[in-house]
Amino acid sequence: MIDLYAIGRQRPSGAMTWTTIDIQGSVGNTALGANPLKGLAYDPLTRLFYTIAPNNPGGPQLCSASTTGSLQTIRGVSPNLTGGLAYRTAEDCFYAVSNNPDGLATFYRVPLTGQDSLLFTIAAQCTVNGLAYVWRTDTFYALITKNDFTWLYSINLNGTVRQLFGVGLRVFGGLCHSPSEDLFYFAANEADGFSRLWTLALNGSTVNRMGLGYDFNNAAIIAAPWFGASLNVLSPLEGERFVAGEQVRLDANILGLGGPPVWNSEGVVWTSDRDGSLGSGSPTVTLSQGNHVITASKERLRRTVNVRVFADLWNLYRSPPSPAEIDRIQRDFSLQWVDGPSGESWASYPGTPFDQTSANPSRTAVFAKLDVLRHQRFSQPLPWTAATAYEHVRQNTHTIRVSLGTDLNQAGGGVINLNRTFTLWSNNPAQPNVATPYIDPLYLFIHESRHNEPGDPLHTSCTSWTGASGTPNGMDAQFEPGSGYARAAVYLMWVYKYARFDPPTMRDQAKSDTMVHKDRFCRRPASTNSLVQALLHELWQA
Questions:
Q1: Higher pLDDT residue, 108 or 519?
Q2: 506-511 — which CB contacts under 8 Å span 24+ positions?
Q3: What's the angle, vertex CA 361, arms to CA 355 and CA 364, rounded to 5?
Q4: Backbone angles phi, psi at 463, to 5 degrees
Q5: What's the chain's Rg over C-alpha atoms?
Q6: For residues 516-541, average pLDDT
Q7: Which CATH number is 181's domain given?
């Protein structure tokens, strides 16, 4: 495990080393070369460490370092910046201390790009050996040695510098802060040159934690970004549902104590209690059918989420959506719950209980149908969008109004108005307590979403449509550009022919619904898409 990183010399005349420190007792070293390096800071935006090469032959340089210690030169910096380096989150900028030949220690602002700025003098007749920043109080702290005795100083950007208390003899080895513990770490040499890692509290208490090796004088120390942080799983969501064969992206980040991300999913290891190893980083996987406990781990951090994987979309639809899935839909759309004109109120149907045997309107029924649309995939891309049907709707729709008091579905201006039927688990009045196919309300939803798209031709018709069953006097002689009727028909044809996760019964229902749509067209419609043409030939000849 890695809790701290350090840069220093293990021997006075030896090479610089990149040191990994496990506070439970182990230390590892990688040689970096002979060029001295001073200070060590971490920038969560770039996910790199930074140090200064003050004696670079071409002039002092700011350098970046990866977690393996691989160095890269960034830009030239001011001379004598040997007293430590610290990162301030608020402005994405570094600060450093210059130990000048005249004995003055001065404070510098060091941006990643641009020019350094001399701010003010910290102390005189001294050497600064470490600099750390505490974001909670917006204060810098420095180890400053005078006459072979080291003191802890506080530094504020308004120029206020305070000597706080003595730390001890031979404390020449860098300083960093652990927010989760509210402790500082530093290195200090014994009389024989053996270095030890210490913790320091602002009440003056110091604790000898472990041995580091010899001659860590003038080393620089920084806490690893995951030391004292928390692992946050971004995907999958807790309780999320999937279909066997569906691609599942695994993603996480690591949050610092104050909440902002300090690391992405690089190096995070994923496992399933059913499927075993799932890879590392941000892999995309398919999961076997059943309930999974997915574990993400990085160093000492660990987080688990539970997911459910079903045989097909019908089984997924008959399982309750998790609170996280419902929250995601509510982030994707602004949902408005509209009461009926006769006094029927959504207050009579509170919350999001899952009961597919109820004949009452249900918010959960709306969420469940929209989530089915999220999971639908086809073996051939939909001809009217390169994204999924759900994402295509999101591109043009911002608000969904769900009404108890209208039988109409309609849309325009980025708003879809859904009728009462969309709120019910059953589409069949003869069986109001039996969950019926989700295809019927979804093709109506796809129909209405077309009216929010640019270039929607509305319901142009070649003859007046009376709505009479079996009367061939409807809409849309062509699918391009096509109104809502054409869009719904294409959707149904794709579910019938190319659905990957819809079961056979749902595909048969889609084919049956397409037959109904034949009465909504003036004649067999035309299309420039060869796949649509083939389906037209198959379905309109049936």
A1: 108
A2: 506/313, 506/314, 506/437, 506/438, 506/439, 509/437, 509/439, 509/440, 510/439, 510/443, 511/539
A3: 50
A4: -140, 165
A5: 33
A6: 81
A7: 2.120.10.30
Please identify, among 279, 310, 341, the residue that sits at the C-terminal boundary of a domain. Answer: 310
Based on the fold, state whether residues 299 and 410 are members of the same structural domain. no
3-class secondary-structure state, position 17: strand
Sheet containing 251-255, strands listed edge to edge, beginning at the edge strand earlier in sequence: 230-235, 251-255, 261-263
Percent of the chain with pLDDT over 70: 95
Cβ neighbors of 72 (< 8 A, separation 6 or more) are 63, 64, 65
Tell me the two tokens of residue 283: 């892999």
Alpha-carbon dihedral angle through residues 218, 219, 223, 224, given to the nearest 10 degrees: 160
Q: What's the confidence (pLDDT) of residue 514?
A: 87
CA–CA separation, 514 and 491 (whole Å): 9
Cite the DSSP H helix spans in 280-409: 313-317, 323-332, 363-375, 389-396
Q: Which residues of 238-250 are buried (b: 16+ CB within 10 A; e: fewer)?
A: ebbbbbbebebeb
pTM for the structure as a whole: 0.88
Residue 295: CB atoms within 10 A of its CB come to 16
Q: Is the pLDDT of residue 10 over 80?
A: no
Q: What sign results for the dihedral spanned by CA atoms 72, 75, 76, 78?
A: negative
- Encoded tokens for 318: 């008959």
Task: List CB contacts of 389: < 8 A, sequence separation 6 or more.
Answer: 373, 376, 382, 446, 491
Q: How many domains does the chain have?
A: 3
Quick one: 186 and 44 in the same domain? yes
Q: Which two tokens stand for residue 316?
A: 């997924």
